[in-house]
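User: What would this chain look like folded?
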Amino acid sequence: MKPLFLSVIIFTSSLFLFQCDKLYEMYRNNVSGIELTDELIQKYVKAVKALHKLGPDIPKQLAEKGENEATGLELFHQIESVIKDAGFKDYAEFVKVNAKVAWAWNVSQGELGIEKFQNMKDDGLKQIEDTLADPSVPEEVKIELRKTKQKITDDWSHNKKYADISMNIVRPLTNNHDLEIIKRNQKEIMEAYTGIPQNKLKEIDPSLFITK
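Assistant: Here's the prediction, encoded as structure tokens.
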């Protein structure tokens, strides 16, 4: 490896780690003192649902009143009022809780996604293995199946490597306690985020849910 190329890799890696450290520091500074609980998640879900309902009216109000400082302040007070009605002290507290919930949510969904793809990969390989073990299947078909099996395995290894790198970066932005809270309330949070009732979400894709 050429010295210049090696120096570029070291510099890029150092810069990347520095940026991650800054992100972790900003996160810790902004959400310090916030501990997720089931009760806090209930308030959060209530606030998010209310903000969803308020959201469609905002463009209409801007169009009617114009985008000026007074209108912006009025809309902010509306948003903060909705947040307070849900049980939060103020907008700032909601933002901190939102950061905590959002990062834990992203990590939990990343873990769920990896699990889903691994199950799909395992099911696909099992079907191929069952077919390969069938003596009635012609050898030329088995040759192609072995190629497919190898490709599935290689693709999985390649994608899993980068998925693990991504998860290792975002995992420090949450903790096991928060993840447990998120997973326990996953249905309610997803309903709040999407604006779609739980029964409809289950019809769309039952595997969306960590908890059954």
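The chain is about 80% helix and 0% strand. If you want, I can go into more detail on any region.
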